[in-house]
Amino acid sequence: MTHKSHKIAVIPGDGIGPEVTNVAFEILQLVAKKNSVTYIERVFPFGVNHYLLTGETLSQESVEELKKYDAIFMGAIGSPKIKPGILEKGILLNMRLSLDLYINYRPVKLYPGVDTPIKDKTPSDIDFVVIRENTGGLYTDIGGVTMKGTPDEVAINEKVYNYQQVSRCVRYAFKIAQSRPRKLIALIGKTNILTYVFDLWERVFNEIGEKEFPEIKREYYHVDAACMHIIKSPEIFDVMVTSNMFGDIITDIGAVIQGGMGMAASGNLNPEKPTPSMFEPVHGSAPDIADQNKANPIAAIMSMKMMLDFLGEHNAADDIEKALQKVTPMNLNRMSTKEIAKAFTNSL
Ligand code: NAD
Ligand code: IPM
Ligand code: MN
Fold first, then answer.
1. Which domains does the chain have, with CATH numbers?
2. Distance between CA 42 and CA 11 in Å, rounded?
3. How far is the CA of 283 from the centre of ligand 3 (A)?
4. Can you state the angle between helices 337-347 and 298-310, rounded to 10 degrees?
5. Which residue has the CA at smallest separation from atom 16 of ligand 1?
6. What confidence tens digit (pLDDT) does each residue in 237-248 have?
7. Span 281-304, pLDDT tens digits
8. Whole-model pTM?
């Protein structure tokens, strides 16, 4: 057995980010000790206060520094104190692009005892994974504005994909489908209106599926219908693969049906591991509940679990999963951040 010490970069960030990050690291400390996992962590200050103080969102030097780590854990960034987009693009998008974290892995799983707003659905109905393409689409910052502030203003954000971006994402999604029992994958697109981009996606999806994964059953849904199905019949999904923006939207719906934003974990991955992957909850900085001991830290804890799995520390990850099974039957909606943290540490 190897005893590699993992180097972890931590970006607690803004709003509830630091609160949920603290809990996730409390849990890490315990499962690491129990499983003889060793790690060193360094906290980075990126976020609104650092930006207001220094003007830095995430500089190229900082990106280079982050590359020296084995993984990055982030709480959340974003603040009503400054214009939307500065931190989101400057830090989050910058990391996803600079580190080529081309997969956003977002499981949607209803745990026993957790309230779902969907009537009559149980954990056996809600258990799928969204593979969200994480570097292209509407997120490339290609576009622009002209004649701003005049009645002639033109504003453009382009949805951009190339063959390579689509195929590496689709291939990864098929591999995930292959690793799960149902052998089922759905492409979520909009081939009826975005006829260039989703024609590319659909061809690549069918080509790769047919040639490399003939045992996986392929389905296709338009994104609007998919949103309807996620709420009406989530059990029809196992692995969903989709573009960046559609994946963003679908996974907030996914978060709600698995018990709320506080339950949804995510990994921004480069599966070939040339750079550190980054783990963060799906939720944002939730300024409306920040510093009130109200944030549900489970999304952060489960993102930590995903990080441990990615680092090869499966026993430590399994301990987190087992503890979660004990915690979710409690009435989470009525519990504070600290109470959930305590229940979790007691269950380990
Ligand atoms: P949000 O996810 O922060 O909040 C949406 C709603 O969910 C709010 O009512 C919030 O109170 C609730 N919520 C979120 N996390 C919760 C938790 N752990 N426990 C309980 N309730 C929770 O989304 P928003 O309000 O659209 O965005 C707020 C800020 O966060 C913005 O600046 C946005 O750009 C940013 N953001 C950042 C990330 C990220 O860092 N990855 C993700 C999404 C949004
Ligand atoms: C997410 C967030 C980000 C996104 C924002 C904050 C840029 O909503 O991670 O889901 O749109 O990807
Ligand atoms: Mn989002």
1. 1-102+265-348 (3.40.718.10), 116-258 (3.40.718.10)
2. 9
3. 7
4. 40
5. 262
6. 999 999 999 999
7. 999 999 999 999 999 999 999 999
8. 0.97
